[in-house]
Design a protein that fits this description.
Keywords: Heme, Iron, Membrane, Metal-binding, Monooxygenase, Oxidoreductase, Transmembrane, Transmembrane helix. Belongs to the cytochrome P450 family. It comes from Prunus persica (Peach). One of its GO terms (molecular function) is monooxygenase activity. The chain is α+β, with helices and mostly antiparallel strands. It has helices at 2-43, 58-68, 87-96, 115-122, 133-136, 140-143, 152-162, 168-172, 175-195, 205-222, 229-243, 247-250, 261-289, 298-307, 321-353, 355-369, 373-379, 383-386, 390-403, 434-437, 441-444, 460-463, 483-498; strands at residues 99-104, 107-112, 129-130, 200-204, 408-413, 417-419, 422-424, 429-433, 501-505, 513-516, 518-521, 526-531. It has a domain at 33-54 and 79-143 and 409-471: Uridine Diphospho-n-acetylenolpyruvylglucosamine Reductase, domain 2 (2-Layer Sandwich). Strands 1-2-8-5-3 form a five-stranded mixed beta sheet, sandwiched between helices. A three-stranded antiparallel beta sheet has the order 4-12-9. Helix 9 packs antiparallel against helix 10 and helix 15 (321-353) packs across helix 19. It starts with a helix and ends with a strand.
């Protein structure tokens, strides 16, 4: 009896110790660590809204967001749409200045919109500053462990493999493919305009430009298998929509024991996308083994890297070659096609609002390339001629300033680091709202909310007081590796479209930018399309 009681006491003691250890760990992660981080920041003069226990500032964020959701005139186009997306960030900036701290649950965020500190952020080593792990984990079904999500040595290795495929010398070799896709695309619009009543067609240009962009990225990066691109992209678009949950930004995940319907849908979509990609990969591998391909595109480089067992390759990729291939293919389809299509769509919307700039771009195209179709197509294959399209470049840069696809710059301090005069503890999440930077009247002037491409007449360095605060492609070592590819694609697609068609806003257009991983038009971008007279 006594021995049984002794055993029971020991069991209860062990269980109690286990429970206490779990409670202490929870207390450390939920209270002690956040309190220590906030204390370090507070001693340096960094203030912010007081957080509540467990939830942090999320209840206040949700309250501000809901109180800000007033009915707006969707038919009136104004470019200061930022308060409707993250009103709490702007309100706190007005209260606490361009650098402040806030919390989502136990996660501590350092909001930074000071241009001088942004310059410091650009200089940080990729080993010290990475993608927030709590943010990237929920998006794993879409981007996997690809370069978008990787940190440290994993990021360095993947950048070494993929970035060279988007250098200018490689992009030059993709120009013909871009032009061929765009010409075929334009012919479908031409036939629709000709067959329409009155020679005018109401087109949802964002949806159709996504198809064009997916075709281009497929042909340029995945070679002869491009016919599968649209099917893959369609699945990825549905997956993106399923993952566009605001709670992910707060770091609140599902803690239920059973998967939700949404999670089941996401898992099923990922399997479908991977099956399509795996077929593409296996077809290419068979071609390579039989000596039937000489293509040196991005897919071939990824395949070669996956098969390579060099000493600089991270250990986890040695036995997960298929996953390495699929993750990077999936993220390139998402990031490479979606962002460029959105930029082209928003640019056409702005030109529809400003027909004088639409005409200025057309005049420049005619002066640089000529008015004949063959002359134009030859001109756009010449990089020197593309660089002479200054007015077009100014319009694209201004479109990226007002409607850049990227909305948030989110980073995590992977180690203790210096940021200007501040010391940032490890684990702090550094947030910057790009549209706010791009509309700062102190940097851009009192007309910061207006479409004025002329501000870029002498380049980005002369467009504003602090050029480092213009970050449509991100900044530093983690800036978008595909920005050269994207800009060249825009400079080929837009001239081909604008030389053939003129645009005005459709009466059915409703202006409602929303954040769903990227800046999307909630109701699409509907434009009236006519042949240029």
């Amino acid at each position: 009896m006594a021995e049984g009681l002794q055993v029971a006491l020991i069991c209860w003691s062990v269980m109690l110790i286990g429970v206490l250890r779990v409670l202490f760990r929870l207390m450390k992660e939920m209270w002690l660590k956040p309190a220590r981080i906030r204390s370090v920041l507070r001693k340096q003069g960094i203030r912010g809204p007081p957080p509540s226990f467990i939830a942090g500032n999320v209840p206040e964020m949700q309250k501000i967001q809901s109180s800000n959701q007033k009915p707006s005139d969707a038919n009136h186009v104004h470019h200061n749409w930022v308060p409707s997306i993250f009103p709490y960030l702007q309100r706190w900036e007005q209260l606490y200045g361009p650098v402040y701290v806030y919390a989502t649950g136990s996660k501590q965020h350092l909001y930074v919109s000071d241009p001088k500190l942004l310059k410091e952020l650009k200089l940080q080593n990729y080993m010290d500053l990475g993608v927030p792990r709590y943010l990237s984990k929920p998006f794993q079904p879409l981007i996997g462990d690809s370069i978008i999500r990787a940190n440290g040595q994993d990021f360095a290795y993947q950048k070494k493999v993929i970035a060279p495929e988007f250098f200018l010398n490689k992009v030059k070799g993709m120009v013909c493919l871009m032009e061929e896709s765009a010409v075929a695309f334009i012919k479908t619009w031409e036939s629709r305009v000709v067959e329409s009543e009155g020679g005018v067609v109401d087109i949802k240009v964002d949806e159709e430009l996504k198809t064009l962009s997916a075709d281009i990225i497929s042909r340029a990066c995945f070679g002869s298998s491009y016919s599968q691109g649209n099917q893959i992209f369609a699945k990825i678009a549905i997956l993106q929509e399923a993952l566009s949950n605001p709670s992910l930004l707060f770091g609140f995940l599902n803690f239920s024991l059973f998967p939700t319907e949404s999670e089941k849908k996401i898992k099923s979509l990922r399997k479908e996308v991977d099956a399509l990609l795996l077929k593409l990969v296996r077809d290419r591998q068979k071609e390579s083994q039989s000596g039937g391909t000489s293509e040196k595109d991005l897919l071939q480089m990824i395949l070669q890297s996956a098969a390579n067992n060099s000493t600089d390759k991270p250990q986890q990729y040695m036995h997960k070659t298929d996953q390495f291939i699929l993750d990077n293919c999936r993220s390139i389809y998402f990031a490479g096609s979606e962002t460029t299509a959105l930029t082209a769509s928003w640019t056409l919307m702005l030109l529809a609002l400003h027909p004088e700039w639409q005409e200025r771009v057309r005049v420049e195209i005619a002066e640089v390339c000529g008015v004949d179709d063959d002359q134009l197509r030859q001109c756009l294959k010449d990089m020197d001629k593309l660089n002479k399209l200054k007015t077009l470049t100014m319009v694209i840069q201004e479109s990226l300033r007002l409607y850049g696809p990227g909305v948030i710059l989110a980073r995590e301090a992977l180690a203790k680091m210096k940021l200007g005069d501040f010391t940032v503890p490890e684990g702090v999440h550094i947030w910057t709202l790009i549209p706010t930077l791009h509309r700062d009247p102190e940097n851009w002037g009192p007309d910061a909310n207006e479409f004025k491409p002329e501000r870029f007449a002498n380049g980005v360095s002369e467009a504003c007081k602090y050029p480092q605060a213009y970050v449509p492609f991100g900044h530093g070592s983690r800036s978008c590796i595909g920005q050269t590819f994207s800009m060249v694609q825009l400079k080929i697609v837009l001239p081909l479209i604008l030389s053939k068609f003129s645009f005005s806003l459709s009466p059915n257009y409703q202006h409602s930018p929303v954040y769903k991983m990227l800046l999307l038009p909630k109701h699409g971008i509907r434009l009236l399309v006519r042949r240029v007279q």
